[in-house]
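A further point concerns the way the authors explain their paired sequence and structure data. An entry of this sort, consisting of the sequence and the corresponding backbone structure tokens, reads as follows:
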Amino acid sequence: MDLIKEVFQDLSKNRQLLRTEINDNNDGNERSIVYLNYDFSLSEKLKIELSNLIHYFQMYRRALGEHDRLAALFMITCAGDLARTLSDVFGGIEDAIDKVMYRDLRFSWPSVPEGYKIPQPLLVAAKDKLKCMADFGSAADHDVLMFWESSGGKIEVVKKDSVDVIRKTFIESAESIGVSRKEMNESMDENDHFEWCIDYRHCLGEQLEVDLDELLLFLEAHRIAIQQNDQLAAYITLLYCGIHAQNVSGFFLNIKDEVDRVAVLDKRFSWPPRQPRLGG
């Protein structure tokens, strides 16, 4: 995932922008590229926050199994906060791409001719590069969403089915108040919006994998296009990066909205009163 930061570093060097211009998001200057803090690893943040998100849902289920509803409420609230954090991370990527493509006039992009398609050799080269990365260690199998090597040299993984604990949790929560899985996908509220935000027909781990893979694919394709001085391909690949960053941001935002429904908005979930903090 640190490929994302490398792309923006390359873009800034290409336009001779200062690092402070990329990081400064408080000066109100629309000409500067607002992006994530360059002083931490995006890959590290994603793996930690996603692992913690899964952990909180597991602890929520455990607390319910032990009939500790106050602990369960705390766990799902923490899960909602983490889901919002992850949504904001990818929302920041989307915003940075938007600035580079449309709002910072120091970046000039060519007009796109009708019917233009990204050159196939460029996409093949990007796929080959990512495949080499995916072959790293023994963790590359179809069940793994992401993996990394720990400081001790151990391969750590997040499996796709572990993410699906989130979907299962909301399905079981809805069933506890008499809402069927079919109703979760089909019922509408008075404003013609789906009451439940997540698509419960599909595995969440697989949904997340699709957009993360596509995001990384088009980021790598963008880098290759820049190296080949193909500004048209660079522009279009960056456009697709923005689309998939938005999709991932929306994925986590839907989880946050679902948590809000269960923990706060839907009064059919009867939670015990929150305990006041000591010294508060």
